[in-house]
């Protein structure tokens, strides 16, 4: 029996297993369900005969580490068991922790980010062991519980325990899936990030809004300060950051030109009608995406936001800001540069507090194992791979792989419309089982990868 047929035959069993882990509300920021899901994952590993080690660093949630298999090739896998808060439950069409299939889509918090990919990888490994009575490659698997908090302890974890995996030949990252046209995607990196909170406080108490003729407004001050960070088309206007951006190489531009990008399908998947800056040309849209910073306001709050009116002059205003970083930018310096920029523009009363930072991570475009993977993924999916220079988002890949020169790839059940971090998060059922089958195929193919071709 072909592996795809075997998977579809046991479809209900795979879904039941997925539902078990999705029903645990492991929201790291709230501290709920974290230790429960850790025990559940450890039990799942024991079912395939693998014991996991648990590490904690600086009071972190547990890091799970498993090492098993045999052969000359070593694959590092990274996943996380924590999920985002649900947000407004009224915006969900079903209970976020009671998985439900509607119109061929599996809805649940964490199914896309990242429990779905975690589970299908474990199922693929079990399939491999059942069929061949062994795991034909060495696997080192790290599963953390603070990714949705910005992985604040991962750098320290890597410094202390990096010797356990720094000899890996390849890293399978937590994300992965297909593009808006259903083609599997290979990424050559992840953007960095600096996430910070900006605050303005003027005076010791809120005032009646009639005092606006006497005093400056903390809210207006913050809005004006934010307006100095980017222009109307969304380009960053902080010279100390923009001046160090590297121009794309000829090879990068060639990959960009070759990238398959359907603007209309992408807009539809995201629920938008146009791109920032009103760009319509594919090259300009992708150049902006890969080689320029973003400056996003994640949250903005001050004063009265309840029903009806309250004519008040707030003494405080706050904003949460994330800046995505590209090559040649140091994530540890960004918050300080933003603070200095604001002072230079006369906003001495705006405080900048860094919440997290993560470096840019990249994989060498010419790495032979990536070319091998592209060929194998195309065989499994029976579709051409869409090669992208970088993910839109950020992950702590630098600490686990890039600093050790371990190339990264992604493979999973995602597509552009999964609503990760939003209400009604989901994956398509067909994508889940296609990714499960493809993961099985890739693990098997890596056992045949020649040692001399390794990095």
UniProtKB/TrEMBL annotation:
Taxonomic superkingdom: Bacteria
Domain spans labelled Peptidase M20 dimerisation: 191-346
Keywords of this entry: Hydrolase, Metal-binding, Protease
GO cellular component term, pick one: cytosol
SUPFAM superfamilies documented for this protein: Zn-dependent exopeptidases
GO molecular function ontology, one term from the record: peptidase activity
Record InterPro entries: Cyt/Met_Dipeptidase (IPR051458), Peptidase_M20 (IPR002933), Peptidase_M20_dimer (IPR011650)
UniProt keyword annotation of Transferase present: no
Gene3D superfamilies with a match to the protein in the record: 3.30.70.360, Zn peptidases
GO biological process, one term: proteolysis
Record protein name field: Acetylornithine deacetylase/Succinyl-diaminopimelate desuccinylase
Annotated organism of origin: Anaeromicropila populeti
Species classification: Bacteria, Bacillati, Bacillota, Clostridia, Lachnospirales
